[in-house]
C-alpha cells in the first residue's frame, strides 16, 4: 500500500509515526489498518484515516498558447495579443493565481475560471511614440509565502500611414540673378514624415500656379529628396533588417548589371575562341599546301607504255601515239 513506507507504529506504545515524505499533489488521503493483539491471542482492529493538508510548494506554471509577434498600430482596444494558460498544483489560496503587468503600458490581462488568460490592447497604439513593447507578465498565488512566475512577451508595432509630410518651414525665401543658366540649382526644400519605410518616403511636385500669367512649371522644375536612412540597433543583423526594403532596388540593379557583364564576357570569350580557331585552321592548311608543293616538284614522270603500242625499228620516230600517266599532288600545277 502507499502508506506502508510512509508510516510506522510503535509495537508497545501504539504511537503512529511518519517515516517518509507525503505529497498533497500525489495523495490527499491515507487509510491505515491497525491491529492489536494480547498475549492470549485475542485481537482487534481499527482504521486510521489521515488527511494531508496542502502547503504552498508549487509555483504557477505559465504556458503560452498563442502570441502575435507584431500588430498594427491602428488595432482597436480589445484586440487579443496573446493567450496563456496558467496552472498551480496547490489548492485553495495556495492555488489561486493573479497576473499583473509591471509596466504602465496600454495592455491589460483578462482571466477566466478555467485557467486561461488573454492579453488584450487597452488603449491606443502609436508606432511613432513606441515602436515595440517588452511586456512582462507576473503571475503569483495567494499562498503564504506567495510564489510567483513571470514571462516576457516581445511585441512589435507595425506602421500605418497616419502621418502627413511636414515641411521644416511654412515659407522659404530664395534669390537668383536674372539671365541665369537653365538648370541652375536655386534652393532645396525638405519635408519630413514620421511614418516608417514606404510610408515615410516623400516626393515633391509643383502645384499648378502661374506668375504674371506664366505657368510656374515653365520657369522652374523640381527634382527628387536624396534620403539618408539611419537605423540604430544593438547588432548588425538588426541593421540589415532595417535597410532590407531600401536596398531592394539597388540589389536588383546590381544583379542586372552583373548578368549583363557576365553575358558580355561570355560573348567576348566565344568571339576570341572563334577567331583563334579560324586562324589555326587557315595556318594549318597553308603549311600543308606548302609542304605538298615542295614535295610535288621533285616527283618523277613515269612513262606508261600501253601494250598495244611500241617503238618501231628504233629509228627514234614515233609512228604511233603514246600515252603518259603523271602522278601529281593537289594543286601542283601552281
Automatic annotation (TrEMBL):
Pfam families assigned: Cadherin, Cadherin_C_2
Q: Which organism is it from?
A: Cirrhinus molitorella
Q: How does it sit in the membrane?
A: Single-pass membrane protein
The UniProt record lists the keyword Disulfide bond: no
Residue stretches spanning the membrane? 256-281
Protein name in the entry: Cadherin domain-containing protein
Q: Which PROSITE patterns match?
A: CADHERIN_1, CADHERIN_2
* Domain Cadherin residues, every copy: 2-62, 63-167
Record has Nucleotide-binding as a keyword: no
Please give the PANTHER family that the UniProt record associates with this protein.
CADHERIN-87A, PROTOCADHERIN 1 GAMMA 11 PRECURSOR-RELATED
Instruction: Give the UniProt subcellular location, in the record's own words.
Output: Membrane
Q: What keywords appear on the UniProt entry?
A: Calcium, Glycoprotein, Membrane, Repeat, Transmembrane, Transmembrane helix
InterPro entries, per this entry? Answer: Cadherin-like_dom (IPR002126), Cadherin-like_sf (IPR015919), Cadherin_C (IPR032455), Cadherin_CS (IPR020894), Protocadherin/Cadherin-CA (IPR050174)
